[in-house]
Write a structure and sequence with these properties.
Strand content: 25-35%
Number of helices: 9
CATH topology of the largest domain: Aminopeptidase
CATH superfamily of the largest domain: Gcn5-related N-acetyltransferase (GNAT)
CATH architecture of the largest domain: 3-Layer(aba) Sandwich
Strand order of the largest sheet: 1-2-3-4-5-13-6-12-10
Radius of gyration: 21 Å
């Protein structure tokens, strides 16, 4: 990744920018801008009711510096008024397996600066920037390219803006939570499989099995060894909470449980996450996911949690939504993925 050393102070001309006194645009400097970016990111999420997903300085720095196919110095647009950051958009891309190249853009605007045309201008900049990247792609095969973003159910203004800009909904995701952990079903492991603690020498095999299991899911993309390095350094990873099922020396499936301690401390909740639920093909249709999930919920309960949460693709091909509902998970909110052909 090209990071350079010079702070980008030169203004960027953004087409269709609103007439706001003191408004300027520039690129992002990862050496100095993360604290201001954190304020914008979290301020925007709180306004949108996403306070369960707030970053810390550590998580936003890791996430943005390690995103695949993303150069923070080139692929982020910062909006300032009189030198204070009020909004930003960032662009990164992925090549889906045997499918299109998808340019994701994610934007955050502080609530007091919404409704002034910033969002529209920054989305259009993101699309133009994505087209510029697409024009430089070296592969000889011509593929369809899309701009894509995710919108949560209460972001009505953004949803209307995207529709007006030609985006269409293509996929839906639920955020689900259990009301309590008082009625965890007792589900035995399938015969011949066992749960073992996750040890450092197993981390790469666990990661690889998870990647393999998700290859047949919607939106699955390419991955390589560098993705493991990004994944294993995630500050939210808690391997001592993982549930990993083994068949001899083969990983059959896993759930990468974790706790967002910052959120729990701030909100007074005791919520644990049961995420990255995966079962490899040879071990599907045997009740393994249900058994691992029951064990995951029990682990969280033993650690003092009173609820668990997860996210799910509503059209997951393995019937995950029905499984989670049968385990007591309830839909808390919905998000929609929108796409537009570039």
């Amino acid at each position: 990744m090209d990071t350079g050393t010079t702070r980008p102070t030169q203004s960027i001309a953004v087409q269709d920018a609103p007439s706001i006194p003191g408004l300027t645009f520039r690129h992002f400097d990862p050496d100095t801008d993360y604290p201001a970016m954190l304020e914008v990111n979290n301020g925007s999420k709180i306004a949108d009711g996403l306070d369960y997903d707030l970053h810390t300085l550590e998580t936003i720095t890791h996430g943005y510096n390690s995103t695949r196919n993303h150069n923070p110095r080139k692929d982020v647009l910062v909006a300032e008024v009189d030198g204070e950051m009020i909004a930003y958009n960032r662009v990164f891309w992925d090549r889906e397996l045997e499918g299109p190249r998808v340019y994701w853009h994610v934007g955050f605007v502080l609530p007091e600066w919404r409704g002034k045309g910033l969002g529209r201008a920054m989305i259009r900049w993101s699309e133009t920037h994505a087209r510029g990247i697409e024009a430089t792609q070296a592969d000889l095969e011509k593929v369809t390219a899309y701009a894509s973003t995710q919108v949560y159910s209460n972001m009505v203004g953004l949803e209307n803006l995207l529709k007006a800009e030609g985006y269409e909904p293509v996929r839906y995701e639920f955020h689900m939570e259990t009301p309590d952990l008082d009625h965890i079903p007792d589900v035995p492991m399938p015969e011949g499989l066992e749960i073992r603690p996750a040890k450092p020498e197993h981390y790469k095999a666990i990661w690889a099995s998870n990647q393999e299991a998700f290859r047949d899911h919607w939106g699955a993309g390419e991955f390589d060894e560098s993705d493991f390095d990004r994944w294993i350094t995630n500050p939210l990873l808690e391997p001592d909470l993982w549930v990993v099922a083994w068949d001899g020396d083969q990983v059959a499936g896993s759930i990468h449980n974790y706790v967002n301690h910052e959120y729990n401390e701030r909100s007074g909740r005791k919520l644990g996450y049961t995420e990255d639920i995966s079962v490899r093909r040879p071990w599907r249709k045997r009740g393994l996911a249900r058994a691992m999930l029951a064990r995951s919920m029990q682990i969280h309960k033993e650690r003092g949690m009173t609820q668990t949460a997860l996210s799910v693709d509503t059209q997951n091909p393995s019937g995950a939504l029905r499984l989670y509902e049968s385990m007591g998970y309830l839909v808390i909110s919905k998000s929609t993925i929108y796409r537009k052909k570039l």
